[in-house]
Amino acid sequence: MPYTNQAGALIDAVKAVGEQLIAANPVELAVGNIVRRVLHIIREEDLSLTTAAIGGLNLSAVSDDENDDDRDGDSTLSAAAVAAAARSTLRPPSLQTLLEDTPVSAAVPQTSSSGGDSEGKSKSADKSSRSRKLKHDVIEAVNELIQDIVTCHEQIAEQAVEHIHQNEVILTLGSSRTVLEFLFAAKEKKRSFRVFVAEGAPRYQGHLLAKELVARGLQTTLITDSAVFAMISRVNMVIVGAHAVMANGGVIAPVGMNLVALAAQKHAVPFVVLAGSHKLCPLYPHNPEVLLNELRSPSELLDFGEFSDCMDFGSGSGSPLLHVVNPAFDYVPPKLVSLFITDTGGHNPSYMYRLIADYYSADDLVVQRRATAGN
């Protein structure tokens, strides 16, 4: 990386890789979310160092091979602290404030016999120190992000006892590790309740979840998707996972979820969505970058051997009489969602846009490299 505009060069490099990752599987919105989170980290750390330099803070150079024990006493402001302060004030400090806080020694130039040579060496040392500090801070922040993703299931599950009460009936659909850990955590807190699991046709992921719940000692009832309306009147709460949560509070979830949400609204049953912060997407459903759905193979619905004559192109009509549509996802509008539970706590759908704004930069909503001269 060059000494000049090192953060900009790093952002371009991450965007180049991010474009390829997103293009490889555009339906997996979490991939784009992580790329944008990393870009936001780079921008925050660069802003932190710039703010510290303007404020006249004494930045100590951090070498790549320095031990963690030697950095315990480092008093330099971290990007997390700067970001927290920025979020609390909702605006950056003014230029006047920054100038007023500048020490006198920094404002008055010092004269010396060495003149330009010492000044040039000082600037070179400052650039080298800032470069190593940026690298260290970005790596540290990315490692924290990885740790947050790994532990998000446990952090969400810790809140289970606040939402699931004694002798309640919980309904869910399909299979979700987050939902599994959430329900098991409530059982570990001596909550006694029953779980209705809609099977989630045509992939029948609910069968896997029901098996896992029974293996962990939870009372479980497996039902068909079409029986949701018939059973919802006996349910106290619907708890489901999500493929992605959009900026407007809408949810992209496994197919059949909108049916469950409508049934819950009809019978005034709370519809609760569990999602880690890495599934919070800064885009809206109408954005052209968002691919809301994908069509899966018809073989999940029909046996080609039995229905081959219905899908025969050689019948003379030029097109088969039978078409099979097998979407993978549903879109649940925010008006059908009662509560989101993330690794940072519970939130109303109307607050999701503000929560998402803390994780992403407006410049990174579209992951695309800057056009170079000649393109």
UniProtKB/TrEMBL annotation:
<keyword id="KW-0648">Protein biosynthesis</keyword>
<dbReference type="GO" id="GO:0005829">
    <property type="term" value="C:cytosol"/>
</dbReference>
<comment type="similarity">
    <text>Belongs to the eIF-2B alpha/beta/delta subunits family.</text>
</comment>
<protein>
    <recommendedName>
        <fullName>Translation initiation factor eIF2B subunit beta</fullName>
    </recommendedName>
</protein>
<dbReference type="InterPro" id="IPR042529">
    <property type="entry name" value="IF_2B-like_C"/>
</dbReference>
<comment type="subunit">
    <text>Component of the translation initiation factor 2B (eIF2B) complex which is a heterodecamer of two sets of five different subunits: alpha, beta, gamma, delta and epsilon. Subunits alpha, beta and delta comprise a regulatory subcomplex and subunits epsilon and gamma comprise a catalytic subcomplex. Within the complex, the hexameric regulatory complex resides at the center, with the two heterodimeric catalytic subcomplexes bound on opposite sides.</text>
</comment>
<dbReference type="GO" id="GO:0005851">
    <property type="term" value="C:eukaryotic translation initiation factor 2B complex"/>
</dbReference>
<feature type="region of interest" description="Disordered">
    <location>
        <begin position="99"/>
        <end position="133"/>
    </location>
</feature>
<dbReference type="GO" id="GO:0005085">
    <property type="term" value="F:guanyl-nucleotide exchange factor activity"/>
</dbReference>
<dbReference type="Pfam" id="PF01008">
    <property type="entry name" value="IF-2B"/>
</dbReference>
<dbReference type="InterPro" id="IPR037171">
    <property type="entry name" value="NagB/RpiA_transferase-like"/>
</dbReference>
<keyword id="KW-0963">Cytoplasm</keyword>
<dbReference type="InterPro" id="IPR000649">
    <property type="entry name" value="IF-2B-related"/>
</dbReference>
<dbReference type="InterPro" id="IPR051855">
    <property type="entry name" value="eIF2B_beta_subunit"/>
</dbReference>
<keyword id="KW-0396">Initiation factor</keyword>
<dbReference type="GO" id="GO:0003743">
    <property type="term" value="F:translation initiation factor activity"/>
</dbReference>
<feature type="compositionally biased region" description="Basic and acidic residues">
    <location>
        <begin position="118"/>
        <end position="129"/>
    </location>
</feature>
